[in-house]
Amino acid sequence: MRALLWVLLLGSPALAQLCDQPFAPARPGWEWQYRVTGERPLTYSIRKTSITENSFVQVRQSASGAEETTYRCTPEGIAPVDFGTQGGGRVEAGAQPVSYDLKVVKVTGVAVPDYDRWAVGSSWKLVLEVQGTGQQGPLRFNISGTLETTYRVVAQETVTTPAGRFVAYKLQTTFATRLRAQAGPLSIPFNFESQGTSWYAENVGLVKSIQKTRDGENVTELVALRKGG
Length: 229
Description:
This protein has one helix and 14 strands.
């Protein structure tokens, strides 16, 4: 029965809509504009390009440049398949900063589920298995582990942002990092968790999020949604 359903999907226009989920629309010409206040204030925009039956590229543009991430679309939902231009980076760690380059080697679950999963009490999970390399001063090391995000729908409520008032689902999220750096016989774990809250409106997507950090919190709000042709 499942195989037959898949054949029918392949031959129907519905397949083209896998990437255009009501709570994460993928429309050519649309641009979401956000502002972030808190520990690291900034503004950025989101566009979705190269939209096909089963994938698209999300472009995040800010003052520091453009970051691209590829997403896959399946009947279960939408999930990132790589870090794109965000896989490498540099973080401060004591006297010497740490540079790193990570790649996604396996994806389990989804970031945005199919429409039928959106209901109070529903939950889902996204797990990215990653591998890569890092360096701190003269020390080079290999990195492996998982980045796991758990989503739970806790309410449906009205939320106000600079873009307007929206009826949105409120999600509680837990982000867990489980990484290990290996340099010869030396093995160092990097394990930590953070909590967040986000609001998603139908036919709009993310309208607000609050991400807690060690030093406070960052609040992201939708400023405008431009629906270009």
